[in-house]
Specification:
By secondary structure, this protein is mostly helical. Helices cover 70% and strands 0% of the residues. 5% of the residues are buried. It is elongated.
Length: 101
């Protein structure tokens, strides 16, 4: 586990207010990421239905060059990359704990 400690200074506002603002910002970012993840997962399901392939099978065939790259297949591949990135960011945000000294 990596521990990162940040110090926050403010010219205005008390620590409780600042903590609340930071927690609200984290909560809103989590909502944004969750929504983007939902949209990407829906797109993946649509590709799977259209092509009759699961995403893991698609990725393996795409990697081997067994599936021709075109706008749709590239977009499918890109959605899988985006999902991984969104999941990593969401996991990071969910692991943040605000502590007061």
């Amino acid at each position: 586990m990596n521990i990162l400690k940040l110090s926050v200074k403010s010219k205005h506002g008390e620590s409780g207010l600042i903590k609340g603002l930071i927690l609200n910002a984290i909560t809103e970012e989590k909502k944004r990421l969750e929504y983007a993840l939902k949209v990407s997962l829906k797109a993946i399901k649509e590709y799977e239905t259209k092509y009759g392939l699961s995403t893991p099978v698609f990725l393996e065939k795409f990697k081997k060059g067994e599936i021709q790259e075109n706008d749709e297949t590239f977009s499918w591949w890109a959605e899988t990359r985006l999902i991984k990135e969104l999941e990593e960011k969401l996991k990071t945000l969910e692991g943040i704990e605000i502590c007061q000294a």
